[in-house]
Structures are given as C-alpha cells and as structure tokens.
Amino acid sequence: MIDPVSGEHVNDRPARGPSTTRLPLLLPGSLSDEQLTVYEAVTGGPRDSGRNPPFELVDESGRLLGPFNAMLYSPSVGLPLQDLGAALRFRTAFTKREREIATLVVAAHLRSDFEWYAHERLGRRAGLSDGETDALRVGRAPMLADVRERVVYEATRQLVAEDDLADAVFTEAATTLGRAALVELVTLVGYYRTLALQLRVFRVGVPDGEPAPEWPAGGDPSGGTGHE
C-alpha cells in the first residue's frame, strides 16, 4: 500500500500484537536510501547485543519494533533522534544501573508499556533486582545503597513529576553527579518522554506474546490510554 502522507510503500500486512499500530511496520526491502540509513544505524549500532539481546529490535520479517519504526517515517528526524538515544545509553558518565533506574522512572510515570518492557530487561541485565524494579513500577522509592543511584532516582522522580528541580535537589545532584551528568540526566528524561509520547500516539504496545506491565490501580498519571 502507499502511505497517503509520505507516498512511501508500507507493509500491507496487519501489525502483530493486541493493538493496531497507526504506523504500519516497514519492511527492509521497501525502505528508501535515507530510511535504510536509519535502519542500519539502529540494527548495526551499539544496540545490537549479539546472540542474546535483552529485547528484540526487529520482528521475524526484519521490521523495526518499538519506537524505532516511527524513526523510519521521517529519516531527517529519526536519524539524529536514534543517535541521541545511542549517546544517552552508551556515551554518558552513568553506570548501567543508574541509567536504567532513571529510564524506568520515566517509563513508570508515563505508563509506557514498550518502554518499560525493554528497559526492565535492560535493568535486570544491569543488575537491578526484582524488588528494585517492582518498586520503580509502582512508583515507590527502591532501597538503594549507592548514594549516586539515590540522587539519580530522586532527581528523575522530581523531573517527571514537576518538570523542574527544586534548588536543594539541583544542588545535591550537581554536587554528587557533576554538572555534565546532570545535563545528561535532564536530556535523558526528555528523550524518553519523547519516545513515550510517540509510542502512545502511534499505539505501539509490547511485542506479540509478551505480557504488558502491571501498573498499579489509580488511573494513568499521564492522562492517556496506556497503549504505548
């Protein structure tokens, strides 16, 4: 079929999974040169974890899953967006645990199903325990022995809840993490908020056969449908 907005060929088969995505998954053979550049940056970059990835980047037909399919629709935006994500995951001063604590706080606050599905698995690879991930999922402060991790958690929690940092939290974060890391943390929160919004708008759920996260009762704090 031809996409009515872009004029590009898209996959005619229905999307897999319990919810229908608003952006059909694109087959690798249908991609333009610009789209193929984005595709190769995602699948051939540092996100490719070899034989045992924590979550799947592509389906059995080679189509990008999660937020990455949307990046193909606008390569001029998708390419720098995926590079920003790679920089935040692989080129910051944070440990893997610190990074995943922050990302899971964002995913839980926005109840972003795919974001949680992917980063819970990354968090477990980084050493987060069941108790720590369960606490983050329901919005409780996990029991963290490391001072830097506690500061990352508290700063991220305040950023997603209030879109700002109080003077005391800012000062503690800048002192404990350093100003460069604090810039990276604020950017990380903004990046994963962006992905969560795209996942929500384009109705991207967890991959077929994977359970959606169990969010606590009390409604969706972001005011949306929860289908991300």
Q: How is the secondary structure organized here?
A:
Elements: H1 33-43, H2 68-73, H3 75-90, H4 96-110, H5 113-126, H6 130-138, H7 147-162, H8 167-177, H9 179-201
Provide tags for this entry:
mainly alpha; 9 helices; 228 residues; disordered C terminus; 53% helix; single chain
- Computed CA radius of gyration, to the nearest angstrom: 18 Å
Topology as a string of helices (H) and strands (E): HHHHHHHHH
The profile of the biggest β sheet is: none
What structural class results from the helix and strand content?
mainly alpha
Runs in which pLDDT lies below 50 for 5 or more consecutive residues are 12-18, 220-228
Tally of DSSP helical segments: 9
Distance between the termini: 25 Å
* Assembly state (oligomeric): single chain
Structure commentary:
The structure is a single chain. The protein is mainly α. It is built from nine helices and no strands. Helix 4 runs antiparallel to helix 5 (113-126), helix 4 runs parallel beside helix 6 and helix 4 (96-110) runs parallel beside helix 7 (147-162).
Can you describe this structure in just a few lines?
The protein is mainly alpha-helical and 228 residues long.
